[in-house]
Amino acid sequence: MQASWILSPSEREASVTAHARSPLRVLVWAALGVIFGDIGTSPLYAMSETVSSHLLGVHGIHDKVTMQLGQYYGRDEVLGWTSLFVWALLVVVTVKYVMLILRADNEGEGGMFAILALLRAKAAKLLSTRGMAVLVLLAVVGSGLILGDGVITPSLTIMSAWEGLEVVTQRWSPYIPWLSVATLVALFSIQRLGTARVGAWFAPAMAVWFATLAAMGAVNLVQHPSVLAAINPWYAARYMLHFPRATLFVIGSVDLCITGCEALFADMGHFGRPAVRRAWFYIVWPALLLNYLGQGARLLDDKPIASGNVFFALVPSSPGFVYPLVIISWMASIIASQALISGAFSLVRQAMQLGLFPRVKVVHTNPDVEGQIYLPAVNWGYLLLCTLLVVGFRNSHNLAPAYGLAVTGTMAFTTILFYFVATRVWMWKARWVGPLCVGLIAVDISFFVSNATQFFQGGYITLAIAAGTAFTMMTWQKGRTALGRVIREAMLPTDLFLSSIRVENPIRVQGTAVFMTSNPGGIPHSLIHYFKHAKSLHEQVILLTVQTRHVPEVPEEQRITEITELGEGFLWVHAAWGYMEGPDIPSLMARVKASGVHINLDDVSFFLGRESLVFTGSSGMSLLRKLFFKVLSQNAVPASAFFRLPPGRVVELGIQVEI
Question: Radius of gyration of the chain from Cα atoms?
Answer without folding.
Answer: 28
